[in-house]
Amino acid sequence: MSISRSLVLTLAGNRVVTSFVSKYGMKLGASRFVAGESLEEAVRFVSGINKEGLIVTLDHLGESVYTKEEATLATDESVRIFEAIEKSGVNSNVSVKLTQLGLDIDPEFCFENMDRIAAKAKECNNFVRIDMEDTPRLEVTIDIFNRLLAKYGKEHIGLVIQSYLYRAVDDVAKLGENQVNLRIVKGAYKEPAAVAFPEKSEVDDNYVRLVQNHLLSGCYTAIATHDETIIHILKKWIKENHIDDNLYEFQMLYGVRNGLQRDLVKEGYKVRVYTPYGKDWYPYFTRRIAERPANALFILKNFFKN
Ligand code: FDA
């Protein structure tokens, strides 16, 4: 992790910064990374982008929830997303974060909430993916995922693995034994060198290795990155190794590398856009700034222009 990225994540936790950005955030540019504050707005966006050949995973923003009432409301909302997808006929699945469903309150309560969402995914013949958060939550996230995988099957539930973690290669191998559908990402949290590669080049090399390993195990793989070099390497490798096109998709974040998303669609690749919506956008927004501190300058310029 570069110093500037670490600095942005530290500043984002500062109380003064939090209250300023929360107040002016949408004007500051959070809307560049967030599709709207309501489910209705988000579904309208999906409908439009589907017409361009892109598919979506919808994420109701929110994490680190501290009351059971909030976690229950967040669970209801994810269930409601599946109903809205079914009703509107748009092409989208759903992504969720376990801390939004009460992981930090009581893991068993969180399991029950996640169980309700996975049941709905199956009922709607759709799919839910559990995002991966920071390492203190990793083991319990994998446990909850494995229990639900046994109940609902890999067609209806998937997980995320982060290539910045040393342990990721073992996790991918183990999850591959059950033919799990994995999204591979580089990782967006502030992690110590004791658990994560400090050098970007090591994170990138590991990224390519994890995608290749998972595909060679015959498992569905979501290649979630905006890194053009990695995308180029993997496209070439996939062709050379005759990997079935039904075994993978590319994924990118709403508002990031829009041109590249559409170029891949034109080349015939399946591309899914991770599309967050909702009022609780602050932590998500700050991670997007941290990934590319130049975004902060762009956003500040817009603020003073408006
Ligand atoms: P990298 O950071 O090297 O960026 C490559 C290039 O992409 C940059 O040079 C720039 O051009 C562009 N870019 C990247 N981020 C940008 C940004 N914010 N703004 C503008 N340009 C940007 N993480 C996690 O820990 N748990 C999770 O569950 C998920 N889920 C997830 C889903 C999907 C669909 C994606 C694409 C990503 C995630 N992530 C995630 C985030 C991921 O871990 C990572 O932080 C970002 O994808 C940025 O890394 P890249 O792979 O894009 O490479």
Automatic annotation (TrEMBL):
<feature type="binding site">
    <location>
        <position position="200"/>
    </location>
    <ligand>
        <name>FAD</name>
    </ligand>
</feature>
<keyword id="KW-0547">Nucleotide-binding</keyword>
<feature type="domain" description="Proline dehydrogenase">
    <location>
        <begin position="49"/>
        <end position="298"/>
    </location>
</feature>
<dbReference type="Pfam" id="PF01619">
    <property type="entry name" value="Pro_dh"/>
</dbReference>
<feature type="binding site">
    <location>
        <position position="162"/>
    </location>
    <ligand>
        <name>FAD</name>
    </ligand>
</feature>
<feature type="binding site">
    <location>
        <position position="97"/>
    </location>
    <ligand>
        <name>substrate</name>
    </ligand>
</feature>
<comment type="pathway">
    <text>Amino-acid degradation; L-proline degradation into L-glutamate; L-glutamate from L-proline: step 1/2.</text>
</comment>
<dbReference type="InterPro" id="IPR008219">
    <property type="entry name" value="PRODH_bac_arc"/>
</dbReference>
<keyword id="KW-0560">Oxidoreductase</keyword>
<dbReference type="GO" id="GO:0000166">
    <property type="term" value="F:nucleotide binding"/>
</dbReference>
<dbReference type="InterPro" id="IPR002872">
    <property type="entry name" value="Proline_DH_dom"/>
</dbReference>
<keyword id="KW-0285">Flavoprotein</keyword>
<dbReference type="GO" id="GO:0004657">
    <property type="term" value="F:proline dehydrogenase activity"/>
</dbReference>
<feature type="binding site">
    <location>
        <position position="288"/>
    </location>
    <ligand>
        <name>substrate</name>
    </ligand>
</feature>
<feature type="binding site">
    <location>
        <position position="287"/>
    </location>
    <ligand>
        <name>substrate</name>
    </ligand>
</feature>
<feature type="binding site">
    <location>
        <begin position="225"/>
        <end position="226"/>
    </location>
    <ligand>
        <name>FAD</name>
    </ligand>
</feature>
<dbReference type="InterPro" id="IPR029041">
    <property type="entry name" value="FAD-linked_oxidoreductase-like"/>
</dbReference>
<dbReference type="GO" id="GO:0010133">
    <property type="term" value="P:L-proline catabolic process to L-glutamate"/>
</dbReference>
<feature type="binding site">
    <location>
        <position position="132"/>
    </location>
    <ligand>
        <name>FAD</name>
    </ligand>
</feature>
<feature type="binding site">
    <location>
        <begin position="186"/>
        <end position="188"/>
    </location>
    <ligand>
        <name>FAD</name>
    </ligand>
</feature>
<keyword id="KW-0274">FAD</keyword>
<keyword id="KW-0642">Proline metabolism</keyword>
<protein>
    <recommendedName>
        <fullName>proline dehydrogenase</fullName>
        <ecNumber>1.5.5.2</ecNumber>
    </recommendedName>
</protein>
<dbReference type="InterPro" id="IPR015659">
    <property type="entry name" value="Proline_oxidase"/>
</dbReference>
